[in-house]
Amino acid sequence: MPKPQRRPAAAWLLFLLLFSLAWPTAGRAADEHQQAPWQELLQREFYPSYELARLAVTEARLQETKGRVELHFTLVQQQDTPLPLDIPMLVSTPRQVYSTTLTSQRKKTAFTLELNDRPTEIRLDPYQELPRHLSPNELPPSWAGFLAAEQRLAIIPAETPAAWEPLLDLLARLDIDALPLEQIEPAALATSSLLFVGSEQENPARGFFAAPLHPGSNHPITLEARENPINPEQTGILLSLHSQPAAADLETLLTTLDSPGLFSQLKIADNTLEQQIKAPHQQGILVRLDQPPDGIAAPARRSFHEIMAELADTRVIYVGEVHSRYEDHLLQLRVLRAMHQQHPKVAVAMEMFPAATQPVLDAYVAGELDEPEFLRQSDYFTNWSFDYRLYREIIDFARHHGLPIIALNLERGLTSKVYREGGTTALSPEELAQLPADRDLALPGFQQRIGAAFTMHDSDPETDPAGFSGFLQAQSIWDEQMAHRMAKFLQENPEYRLLAVVGQGHSDKRNAIPPRLARRLAVEQKVILPVREQTASAPAADYFFFVPSQSLPDQALLGVRVRDGEEESGALVVGLSPRGKARAAGIMEGDLIVAIDDWEITGTNELRIAMLYQQPGQTVKVRVLRPIDTERDEETEELEELEELEELEETPKSFETQEFTLEL
Question: Which residue has the higher pLDDT, 43 or 210?
């Protein structure tokens, strides 16, 4: 929504609307009013015969003043020439709905409404009677909307059946580029309306809408208009037809698509056509103002043991975590212990480990590896940067009782590559083979939730649609992979229950792992969230546990920042804490740490493993290799200028060994 310029005093009209409490006028109640047929609204939207207004509301805010509530907002007419408009408006409060009429005949008009109660939302032109363009949320997706889009793309299989040639000819005549997914730039997916054309053999929509694609998939030809899941302001059309459709059915499809197309769904079978329009998401221009907080009645609060008793027959329990919060992991351990007491056959599914580390997890649970070797072989500190002690007690419990630990994650770098490249088209065939084929980007609320997370990375979906497309697809792939791994284990081990140890963003029951697992396997699932001072959305979980903040014990620290050595194995010191123990002992930047006491340090991960077993206050000896500076004589410098020192430059750098004793 565009932001208005600073208000010139003479250009603004301020209305103070003081109106009595009144219900919407007779005949205007939402359940009585007869709205214009959607065919008429879409005809007006896509094929206007007169000038339409384009309205927006900006700068909406509430202000408490002397016991009353003031609502301030600006109405903007975005078209070139403002129109004289009388705009009906509904104001909703928790107790009542008020109606009034706004008058606007300028580009920008400021309004102030004084109310007795705090409104939750306002809705302008709720019955869509004004001569105006509908907002994106008011428009049901349709073939007409797809044709009216500025940018349109058809995504087709890599090899199209010969019988589809008439369809491809029609798309070309309609100026719609038809390309395989791998030939489309990721940015175009986010800025275009998309037509996915698939058959029973190959359907490029699977990576966006998963399966099933159409409720009426038993028809030879089906079409459904949805939102483009990467950009809901664009349309996504799912067209499914057999590789060898009947000639009469195909002709019916071509004739229908070549028309204005005021429909959202088509079903064609035996030369019979069914079509219909979807209902819109909303009516009127909706502005949400105030969302009261959720709460819970104190008598509804129950003990941990009572809640776990309710969950005794639940097969999958998620305990969503904030990765760095120790109390969340203590709750996960408490739930795991309770589940094990109820039914000994429990497995722990963990986001922290990629699927390739499953053999290492199996070996560790079986007692074939000690902890340091487990951390090395699982490459824990490369794959997951959080303090291992946060998860140690959960893993130790599973190992002690022989409980399977399931590695849920993708290989490190895959989701980052999807995010960085804006989609999956840059992945190699080997990388694509690691991804679940069916991926649903269109789960209700998923795009909005991930969009909020995207803005936390100092990005904006509107200004960086390609970046958001990659971010959205990466998050979907992440959830789908973990759902796939969980479903596979549950199907192969029907006697087991499962505790999912995942981040709160992955445990959201509305659009994260739970619905993706449900798509693969009918299984009872419940979500537990630890709650603290932050707001937790009530629909996101089934149970909330109130957990006090707790911290891990202090960790022994050297006070260095390191990276892997380049010429020699070890941890290269690239930074020192100003008041750290290493600086005080004489360790310098450029030193290469090669041992802590008798523990050989081969790189940064090995240093982190070694430090897990040190305690604050403990005295250790740190052995380093320190580069030796060699002075060059005049002859050497002359040879350098003549570029005749290639052999000398390849000579390894010289080091001297030094040892420092310090108290951690």
Answer: 210
